[in-house]
Amino acid sequence: MTDALPTTETGADSRAVSPGALAGIRVIDLTRVLGGPYCTMILSDHGAEVIKIEPPQGDEVRAWGPPFLDGTASYFLGVNRNKRSIALDLSKPEGREVLLRLLEGADVLVENYKPGSMEKWGIGYDKLSERFPRLVHCRVSGFGATGPLGGLPGYDAIVQAMVGLMSINGEPGSGPLRMGTPVVDLATGLYSTIGILMALQERERSGRGQYIDMTLHDCGMALLHPQAANHFLNGKRPAATGNPHPNISPYSKFRTATCEIFVACGNEPAWRKFCGFLGLEHLVDDPRFATNGDRVVNRADLDTILAARLHTEDGHALCDRMLKAGLPAGPVLFVDEAVAAPHTAARNMVAEIGEFRALNTPIKLSRTPGGARAVPPAFNEHGEEVLLAAGYTAEEVAALREKGILVATPRG
Predict the structure, then answer these.
(1) Alpha helix (H) ranges present in 173-257?
(2) C-alpha distances in angstroms, 412 versus 55, 198, 378, 382, 386?
């Protein structure tokens, strides 16, 4: 793959010419799989130079397919655009020396090695901060280095199970279910990005970098709203409610003649307007539904009434009318329908660079827009380029390749 730039003159055309809000920030990315790469992709979308240092075997998600594009799995393609790839064997002292040289011009290091690995190699934060006092060092791990689970491995689904997210997902009686997206990994990437930006901002005042300790466990726990808040207040164990919201009614999915739709009434004015829109004004005076609390308690009765009213409607047309009337509602779309939807296109949420297609950045900045600028890199695609830019001679690069420090092809 090559670093082609988008050439279409469309909504976010300035992403091809804007350097991005993070232009001038250099990130050394030692992460694999999802949480860390998702974080560094967000940074790269907005102009940060991200050098992805892959292990000799490569980022394992390159093989997490099908589907594949030119031998690389969609899982890798989805979170590694705009980056340059170099493959180094950091288990060898010479490889770590290369890393240290690359860190000389870096602002941020993001890594997701098992806690203790970097320290064992003599390149933990305590050592790095002495040599690079302005460096922001973000570690992403399953459980962190402290506590009963400190240092143990963690994957998204395992953490979903352990923090209670699976227990509140699914229908009543279905039993705990894994969420359909790796929400803990993605949230960890988002929180890590926020932490890095905070540390960079603080560095403007202090002149010093700092260490950021990000874990899947902590970020998964942070996603438990409102169930944790409910539990803290009433002492009850939250349970899976399916589509209905545990605190709001009506807030659920209903079948229409053409599709399933989701409707939501978040306050009393919306409830009254909703009833009037559907010709159900009498429900406003029904004591079972007088307040949101009443509607939550009597949810089953209300849902039965609404289901009977909605099942003959054209769902798409009804949602369109409701939205234009200021009432939140939407058709339940499948992923292929959602990415092809007109509003998705209007918001430039699908990026295309040649055969490469991906979800674009949702962060819309007016002066320094970001987005997909370059396709995800092939393994070690930029190894020689990165080293030459760091001051290595061609002879030194060749020697590193000969010694197996710079890895040309993935090792099985």
Answers:
(1) 183-206, 216-221, 227-234
(2) 11, 39, 16, 20, 24
Rounded to an integer, what distance in angstroms lies between the CA atom of residue 261 and that of residue 228? 28
Give the bridge partners for 356, in sequence order. Answer: 353
Q: Does domain 260-331 have CATH number 3.40.449.10?
A: no
| Cα separation, 60 vs 58, whole angstroms | 6
- Which residues are paired to 254 by β-bridges? 261
What is the residue extent of each domain of the chain?
13-223+343-402, 260-331
- The proportion of the chain whose per-residue pLDDT surpasses 90, expressed as a percent, equals 92
Distance CA 5, CA 376 (A): 12
- Residue 304 host element (H or E): helix 299-310
Query: Can you tell me the distance from the alpha carbon of 193 to that of 370, in angstroms, rounded to the nearest whole number?
Result: 15
The catalytic site residues sit at: 185
3-state secondary structure of 237: coil
**Does the predicted TM-score (pTM) go above 0.85?**
yes
Which amino acid belongs to residue 276?
Answer: G
Question: Which CATH fold topology does 13-223+343-402 show?
Answer: Rossmann fold (3.40.50)
HSE (side-chain half, CA atoms, 13 Å) at 148:
0
Q: What are residue 85's DSSP bridge partners?
A: 52
Three-state SS for 78?
coil
pLDDT band at 399 (very low <50, low <70, confident <90, very high): very high
Average pLDDT, stretch 48-71?
95
DSSP 47-73: T-EEEEEE-TT--GGGGS-SSEETTEE
Backbone phi and psi for residue 375, each to the nearest 5 degrees, phi listed first = -70, 160
Q: Give buried/exposed letters for 342-358 (b at 16+ CB in 10 A, else e).
A: eebeeebbebebeebbb
Report whether 292 contacts 249 (CB < 8 A): yes
